[in-house]
Amino acid sequence: MKTVIGNWKMNVGTRESVALARGVLLALRGKKAIPETVVCPPFTALAEVRKIVARTHVALGAQDLFWEDSGAYTGEISARMLAEHGVSHVIVGHSERRALFETDEMAGKKAAAALVAGLTPVICVGETAVERKAESQAVVVKRQLVAALSPLKAKGKDRVLVAYEPVWAIGTGEPATPNDAVAMHAFIRGFIAESFPSLTKRAQVLYGGSVDGTNAYAFLREKEVDGVLVGGASVKMKEFGDVLSAACEVIEKQGV
Ligand code: PEP
Fold it and tell me: Which own/partner pairs from 139-145 qualify as long-range (CB within 8 Å, at least 24 positions apart)?
């Protein structure tokens, strides 16, 4: 199974989110084989987008959460509140949040809270340009994975998505090469198998960073790439439609 996630960030309001959600359904209409598709609008648009994607193959995701269930945490949104809104996936530890608001440990608490509430965490990891230049990407990603996965107690049907998102590729128009992505995905998979064996079968590894309609196929056709997390291109309907079509084509050709 291939997964395509659109992270709409703070780029769209409710009206545009509803239009995008309709566009996603249209792009998938009539396709024989479709990827697991998740759209992540801003919090304020969740309720309206939910109405559009309810009872379809498109799932609703959120862009963040807080780890406590309830209480005096002004401005925060808990996993339980998201679940109440029909949310099934939640992005955790996005590099834009790590840069401004949160630590590796906070990402771990958020991922654990997501699982407890029955949500699938999409845990983002990835090195900066400076770290890549110093060839420390493996060390950085390992540190982020340990912090994010150690608090998890996955059980039953719980799933965890890990998105390898090199920071230097996010929003720059300069994606990693598929070969770079494959190498890091293999590393991530190997590390999870060795250090978190109970998560091996539950964890899928997605690539994110300047994925668009023209390069999505090259990533998605790789066996090591379970899917893509798309930012900028996911709010351009034609681009995102092309990403979804690329995923459909790979699934049809490879039967995955
Ligand atoms: C992201 O924000 O997760 C992302 C991958 O952004 P972009 O596709 O714009 O690089």
Answer: 141/184, 141/187, 141/188, 141/191, 142/191, 143/104, 144/93, 144/104, 144/107, 145/188, 145/191, 145/192, 145/195
Q: Kindly tell me if the per-residue pLDDT of 155 is higher than 90.
A: no
Which residue's entry shows tokens 């992505």? 181
Rounded CA-CA distance 250/179 in Å is 17
Determine which residue's CA is closest to atom 6 belonging to ligand 1: 231
Write down the residue that tokens 């293999």 correspond to.
186
Residue 19 has phi, psi (to 5 degrees) of -65, -40
In CATH terms, the fold of domain 3-230 is: TIM Barrel (3.20.20)
* Alpha-helix runs per DSSP H in 122-222: 129-133, 137-149, 178-195, 216-220
Give pLDDT tens digits for 103-119.
999 999 999 999 999 99
Nearest CA to ligand 1 atom 1: 231
Q: Does the pTM exceed 0.90?
A: yes
Residue range 153-179: mean pLDDT, rounded: 95
User: What are the structural domain ranges in the chain?
Assistant: 3-230
pLDDT of residue 127: 98
Residues 105, 147 contacting (CB under 8 angstroms): yes
pLDDT score at 154: 87
What is the rounded distance in angstroms from the CA atom of residue 24 to the CA atom of residue 30? 12
Residue whose CB lies within 8 A of the most ligand 1 atoms, among 211, 236, 242, for a mutation test: 211
| Cα–Cα nearest to 256, from 5, 38, 34 | 34
